[in-house]
Amino acid sequence: QLQLVESGGGLVQPGGSLRLSCAASRFTMDYFAVAWFRQAPGKEREGVSCISYSGGDTSYADSVKGRFTISRDNAKNTVDLQMNNLKSEDTAVYYCAAESVPYCSDYEYRTTWDYWGQGTQVTVSS
Asked: Rounded to an integer, what distance in angstroms lies between the CA atom of residue 48 and that of residue 38?
């Protein structure tokens, strides 16, 4: 079964950092745009960041710009999300998604993602 698996979530204090990783199983993400979404309790899912198939194009939600960095390693078949200066409002379940299109245009509105991971919990609390 083709799938994505997220890892790296956990509990961190405000101002701390976490690095999430999204790994593909049984398919290569070389020609896929990959995005991170998150969903907090009682809130709608929101797009956090996206990276194009080549890694040359990235997009970020305004709320995470300057704090989060998305990157990909096609040799390892992974996409990472480095999260720095975490805030309590970053608390959510984080999901990665992959779509067989090259770019990230309007990624936060797209409903055509081919694969989703199961999610990893990120909790920012003192």
From this structure: 7
pLDDT in tens, 24-66: 988 888 899 999 999 999 999 999 999 999 999 999 999 999 9
Residue by residue, DSSP assigns 55-99 as S--EEE-TTTTTTEEEEEETTTTEEEEEE-S--GGG-EEEEEEEE
Calpha distance 61→58 (Å, rounded): 11
For the chain, what is the largest distance between any 2 Cα atoms, rounded to a whole number of angstroms?
Answer: 40
Residue 44 CB partners (closer than 8 Å, separation 6+): none
What's phi and psi for 54, nearest 5 deg?
Answer: -90, -15
Radius of gyration over every alpha carbon of the chain, rounded to an integer in angstroms? 13
Residue for token pair 């609390």: 125
